[in-house]
Amino acid sequence: MRSEMLDSILNELNGTSADIEASAIISTDGLIMASQLPASMDEDRVGAMSAAMLSLGDRTAKELVRGKLDQVLIKGDHGYVLMTHAGEDAVVTVLAKSNAKLGLIFLDVKRAAEDVAKLI
How far apart are CA 33 and CA 59, in angstroms? Predict the structure, then answer.
């Protein structure tokens, strides 16, 4: 039941923008809770990397006195990876195209993360 609701949140998130290529909901210890990732992507690796990056982002924000971490954004030649907390126990990770309108994606991901936080 809960996994179906998490899948539904990802379906809605991916449907909000053609610029979102993939998404996942991951526990803070790196386990995939729900995902819409390409078959070529290793879910376990995405989970582990997302949890590690968010943890490092938390520490960096704290150590450099930037306040509570809101999100981690990685930009590569082929697009973006956006990670944001969904409550205390989960992370929403989104892969977006390189020409994506990030402002809209930030809003959509924030909304999805709030929905996930209410569920878990």
Answer: 24
